[in-house]
Amino acid sequence: MRITFPHMGNLWVGVKAIFEDLGREVVVPPLPSRRSLELGVRHSPEFACFPLKLNIGDFLGALEQGAEVIVMAGGVGPCRFGHYAQVQAQVLRDLGHRVEMVVLEPPRGHLGEVVARLRRLAGWRPLGRILGALRFGWEKLRAADELERAAARARPLETHPGAVDAAYRRALAAVDAAGGIVGTRRASSEGVRAILEATGRGGPAVGRPRLRAGLVGEVYMVVETFANQEVERRLGELGVEVSRSVYISDWARSHVFLDALRLTGRTRATLVRRAAEPYLEHFVGGHGRESVGESVLFQREGYDGVVHVAPFTCMPEIVAASLLPELSRDVRLPVLSLFLDEHTGEAGLQTRLEAFVDLLGRRRRLGEERLGEGRAAAWKSTSVSTSAR
Asked: Per-residue pLDDT for 387 more than 90?
């Protein structure tokens, strides 16, 4: 059984570790590229979601390398993601591929269904063995996320363009190759240090960049850099530190484990729902409500603006985008919505990002000037009062 799966950011690092630890042969698809996109667009329904088209390109690349089984996540609610696996399986059958599609649906309280599918994929190994492999994969995902966070902090501070990204790629390769949980944590720690030192400032990256922006939207578009045309890197090169609303380990935890057991408690998800309530009280599918709530939280945390990314025609994110202008006015937070697909031009995207960053810079300078004037007025008032006494 040669197992493959779609790309979604650095998800491949964790999934590969899980199945290899269980003794299965893994076929990692080629990284998303213009070729895989062209394949996906050519063979997918014209108005299918952009991520679905990219997934088809991933699968065709993996099938060329001998993959036999595709592992695909499922979804629930008013979002086309829940139908991805069925549509993709039909597309591949129409192309003459007799590959097996195994769908891991959110169990909604029935964790046993997911466990049964995992045991089959794992060759019916003992449950304890499977749990150990899942923990190992989880550590890989967390390590990859730490590297991405470090790169986002360091990129706006680098003196030699591309140095941080080069250090990040080396660190990610080290995490992928690391054996065991201890080795993975060591590789992550060393990788973070190397990334921060790659700024060229003679030591670890310190200080706060001039601007900070949150990145919200549909999860695939947020974490898959090829799909969002590397918007995080582009902003970093413009001097902006970017924080994502979701990282791949967050998605895995909420989409599989917490959702399975219906455990939310005082998690970030609870705070997001409450923050979104004045604008959107109900679940609308996908990450529509999260896009609204996370934008509010980013404003409360002092961010200068928010970039909202989504696939073209994505219904949940269209709902969110219709509410973000009102939110922007209420909390005085600039928001840039980007709906992307295979037709999005690089030059136009870069121009919009540059204009948005200019706006954020002007607002920051104006705010600092007003703060300075307020402090001067307060000092003058204090001086006059002191003299009068």
From this structure: no
